[in-house]
Amino acid sequence: MLKRVHFSPSALPFLLVFPQIAITLVFFIWPASQALYQSMLVEDAFGLSTQFVWFQNFEELFSDPLYWEAFERTFIFSFLVAFTAMAFALLLAVMADRVIKGSGVYRTLLIWPYAVAPAAAGALWFFMFNPSLGILPYLLSFIGYDWNHKINGNEAMALVILSAAWKQIAYNFLFFLAGLQSIPKSLIEAAAIDGAGPGRRFWTIMFPLLSPTTFFLLVVNVVYAFFETFGIIDALTAGGPANSTQILVYKVYNDGFVGLDLGGSAAQSVVLMAIVVALTIVQFRFIEKKVSYQ
Questions:
Q1: What is the pLDDT of residues 86-104, one digit of tens each?
Q2: What are φ and ψ of residue 7, in 5° steps?
Q3: Distance (Å, rounded) from C-alpha 200 to C-alpha 191?
Q4: Do 158 and 245 contact (CB within 8 A), yes or no?
Q5: Distance between CA atoms of 210 and 216, rounded to whole angstroms?
Q6: pTM
Q7: Distance CA 143, CA 128 (A)
């Protein structure tokens, strides 16, 4: 019979978790509670008068057709950014896993883009695709394509999706490569001996074993697309042309700091936070069931 072990009361566990609790309170709970409070206020443009209006900001928000357009645009943008970033990262990780000579240099070069700040990444893509100065519009002109994302909303959206996905590929690449290298080589060699080709080995052995990594990256990439792409959009298109690249996080900034609608902007931030929490719960509730941790 196992003997039960009892620990005497100690303050050490509380001291160890205190930094994490303090950071959560200061950087999440307090700002979130302030945003919820601000969402029920209406202030004048100079902040001299404030009126408590309960849920009036939310009612006006949900009756605004421009908000619903940004809502739909955000989901399309987030899905395409997450899918593109994860698909290219997985392809590069599979290729890098096979490299023998110079693999360290190859992997380092693929990781570098993650160190680029979002605003700097946006500026880089802005110069490459600038209709007047960019090299890529110049090359596209040789095949008869006139690129100008400043007046074409579809081209502007394609540009912000590509740049946002490019920024995230390096992060996904690191996790996929680590996941591939943790797969026992004996499994792959046994499948090869049984006659399975590279494609069959990947889809029947490697990809199922990568499901925990894929699920984790799916959650991270969706959150990234919702919240962390503001700098790229601001540097590339500033939400234009004609709001064609204005997703929810950019609309929060635009309405709050440009339009000075602080209550409406706070209401949007509360809705955005609720969407991301709901998406994360859905992913853990339904998609995680298909993940194998063995």
A1: 999 999 888 888 766 667 7
A2: -100, 135
A3: 9
A4: no
A5: 10
A6: 0.84
A7: 17
